[in-house]
Amino acid sequence: MAQSLGLNVNSTGWKLPAWEVRLRRRLWWAVYVEYTWRAVTHGRSSMISDDDWDVSPLTSADFTIDPTAMIPENIRDQSLDYFIRLCSLTEITSGICRQFFSLRAVSRPQILDSLLEQARGPRQQLLKWLEDLPESLALRPEPSDSDADDSVKSHRSLYVAYYTTHILVLRALLRPIIDSNTQLNHVQSSVETVLQACRGLIQTVIKFIRGLDARHQSAFWPAYTRNCLAYPGLFCYMLCLQKRQPDMTAYDQNLLATWRKTLRTRMQSWPFLRFAIVKVDAIYWKKLY
């Protein structure tokens, strides 16, 4: 429908009111974000080809709002930053999925050296994306006393998307490591680096989930977030399957148990976590490791 309406085409030069051009641009990026994350979280390839749209990245000018609209200035600015950064992150995520998770990509021999070289670009993009976040979206420690500001924190879901994208990259690197038929003795240092990065990311996500409280429940959480929150558990399970560092097996299993415990602790007040805990519980119920 979006393509039928021409939302995927740059309408800057069209004979349309400026407000409609801005609206069309925002609508296209909303469609692109929603469709891409639905594809990612459901394990499907995206049907949106880069050759089929030419809408340039959003800017603050695309969010010009009627001055009579009663929108608090701090909420308006934060929402603008949030959506612009989510769009840029989604582009990175889409590229990672095409590069590492398309049918052609997974059918090729999984050579760690080659995968590490391919992953360098996306990892640098993610690092730059994180470094360029505006102050309004920074993830800062918050006071826990009862007098603290309980305003809606609308950017936590952005970090869930970021961690999911980071997990996608490391999942691709884990594939040859957990494959017992792949010889990796010549790149043992690379194996250790990847495994350490995986453990560090899981610990970061656990800390992030523990930091969520009642003040964040009223924020905007996209529907696909519940699927994103299932990724860390499945990723941790992949880590438990590695046999390259037998002495770390117990540590990896403890990480999975810690993630499960964290989900159980937060599940009562966070419905979005229920899908994630079901996925983790299934690993234990079926005794998959």
TrEMBL record:
Biological process, per Gene Ontology: DNA-templated transcription; nitrogen catabolite activation of transcription from RNA polymerase II promoter
Pfam families: Fungal_trans
Keyword field: Nucleus
A single GO cellular-component term on record: nucleus
UniProt KW Nucleotide-binding keyword: no
Species assigned in the record: Fusarium xylarioides
Stated name of the protein: Xylanolytic transcriptional activator regulatory domain-containing protein
Entry superkingdom: Eukaryota
